[in-house]
């Protein structure tokens, strides 16, 4: 009996060590795969919806470039871009846009899921939708260090269109600009844009509107994940009560609920987006001396309509962009998380079987 007991202890010890090690790895704070899924999904959403973002940026910035008179509607702006710049004009600035969204998507979803895991495993008292709001806000803030310079380059390239139309806009604008101020030249691509901004304005130029970007994106990111998680909870409770046997694919659920969450959040933060866009597009012409000055001048010259200018294309962009992003994340989770988890289990199982064999001599 004593020998059997000793043998049992020797057999269980290596297996328990491996199991504890696997459990320790699974209980790490960061869910690294979510950073990857979020990055892919963010880049995918931006790439698909970039033309609508271009229209939104042009509508919001036309008062700065062409004065507050005779501003174009959405349909007129689409026609203008199509006629003067062609299909290529709708995709100006897509490279920095995709890179910026990749970085923000990675930190956004990665930090949200890591925080949710940390709360579920160690700090249940911190749960709730406000925890989701904070996690989304922090995740988006971390991505802003890459996103903001990319956003500055993207938006300046978006408003430029073709070289001919941009040079024409500069000539018209010279009458309104302060003495000595000069609008930036035409950017042929992302790297040339970054180099030109760095050369003319330094690091400050690349991070133009950084605080206004955070003022827009922190509440937007927090609201979007809070709305999304709330809608998921409401949907789940409704399904349990009214249709317990009804199953919805998580990708479809992400598509619908992500779109709704993005649309609500986009409209509520439109005024913050207008301020950010005007500050980043103005270059060195300094039409606005900071965030408060921009709010004051826009309100005085354009009123509430100016503060919410571009809200329709912004919502039109964010509903499908958010829908595609959340759909992509849920799809990647469904198709790859289970496979990765199964691979980890098989690896631990094989180690647990092979390990004891080396501890005992074979009996003839």
Describe it for me?
- The protein is mainly alpha-helical and about 375 residues long.
- The protein contains twelve helices and no strands.
- α9 crosses α12.
Name the descriptors:
single chain; 364 residues; mainly alpha; globular; disordered N terminus
What order do the helices and strands come in, and which of them pair?
Layout: H1 2-26, H2 32-66, H3 74-90, H4 94-122, H5 129-160, H6 163-173, H7 190-206, H8 210-242, H9 250-268, H10 270-281, H11 291-307, H12 311-357
Helix pairs in contact: 1-12, 2-3, 2-4, 2-10, 2-12, 4-5, 5-7, 5-8, 8-9, 8-10, 9-12, 10-11
Low-confidence stretches: 1-27, 174-181
Q: Topology as H/E string?
A: HHHHHHHHHHHH
Termini Cα gap: 21 Å
Share of residues in strands: under 5%
The helix fraction, in percent, is over 70%
Number of strands: 0
Task: Report the sheet with the most strands, covering strand number, pairing sense and barrel closure.
Answer: none
Overall geometric form: globular
Rg, rounded, reads: 26 Å
Based on secondary structure, the structural category is mainly alpha
- Tell me which oligomeric state these chains represent: single chain
Q: Helix tally?
A: 12
Mean pLDDT: 79
What is the gist of this entry?
This protein has 364 residues and is an all-alpha fold.
